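Structure (tokenized):
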């Protein structure tokens, strides 16, 4: 995507959560976007397969009335990379997110970077996986007040054990204007990997001193980045 390209202004935002989370992870960002006059939808992913998650996002996009910015956190970066060529999507926003190329083995790419501590906290049961409470609080939701972090843990979505094996068939970030928020204190995805992905897609990039859940710890910064995307600009208004 060219650095000089610009996206059409959008009045809708679709937010897509990642693994070990649900749509409530966006609850601090949503009112900020609504206050700016935007229509906001948060997808609830089944986390059963890439195809199922993409279908859930496409259903949300189909319901939008006009130009829409599509936002993904963490695993949802894979989802929006696949779904982002939807005709209503004007721009993509990645928050500490995966961003595979078409058909890319993302797990092999991630293995070239430091192994994040959260990986050691996965607990498997009956074909699904979740983060243990200790890993969730320390590595996934680091820096969040304990009561809030435990509430987020309680709504953690179990993921199919082979969820991360799914590969995209397209890379929408090659055809849409992109924005990326890097979490510099991330213990779930290596910040070095996030920087590589942001650079590869030539995204407008910010860095926040945050754990993996930057939309909880820094909702204003994430909302501002999304607002830039809705205006189709590369800098704050």
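Design, position by position:
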């Amino acid at each position: 995507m060219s650095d000089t390209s610009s996206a059409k202004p959008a009045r809708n935002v679709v937010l897509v959560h990642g693994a070990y989370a649900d749509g409530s992870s966006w609850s601090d960002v949503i009112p900020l976007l609504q206050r700016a006059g935007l229509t906001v939808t948060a997808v609830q992913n089944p986390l059963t397969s890439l195809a199922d998650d993409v279908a859930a996002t496409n259903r949300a996009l189909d319901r939008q009335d006009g130009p829409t910015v599509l936002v993904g956190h963490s695993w949802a970066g894979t989802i929006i990379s696949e779904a982002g060529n939807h005709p209503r999507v004007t721009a993509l926003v990645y928050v500490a997110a995966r961003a595979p190329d078409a058909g890319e083995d993302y797990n092999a790419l991630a293995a070239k970077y430091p192994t994040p501590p959260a990986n050691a906290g996965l607990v498997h049961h009956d074909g699904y996986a979740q983060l243990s409470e200790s890993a969730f609080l320390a590595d996934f939701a680091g820096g969040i007040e304990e009561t809030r972090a435990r509430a987020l843990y309680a709504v953690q979505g179990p993921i199919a054990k082979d969820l991360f094996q799914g590969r995209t068939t397209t890379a929408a970030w090659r055809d849409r204007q992109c924005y990326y928020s890097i979490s510099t204190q991330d213990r779930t995805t290596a910040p070095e990997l996030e920087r590589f992905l942001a650079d590869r897609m030539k995204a407008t990039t910010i860095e926040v001193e945050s754990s993996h859940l930057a939309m909880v710890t820094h909702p204003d910064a994430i909302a501002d980045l999304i607002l830039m995307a809705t205006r189709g600009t590369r800098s704050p208004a």
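Reviewer-requested clarification: Confidence is low (pLDDT under 50) at residues 1-5. The first strand starts at residue 12 and ends at 16.
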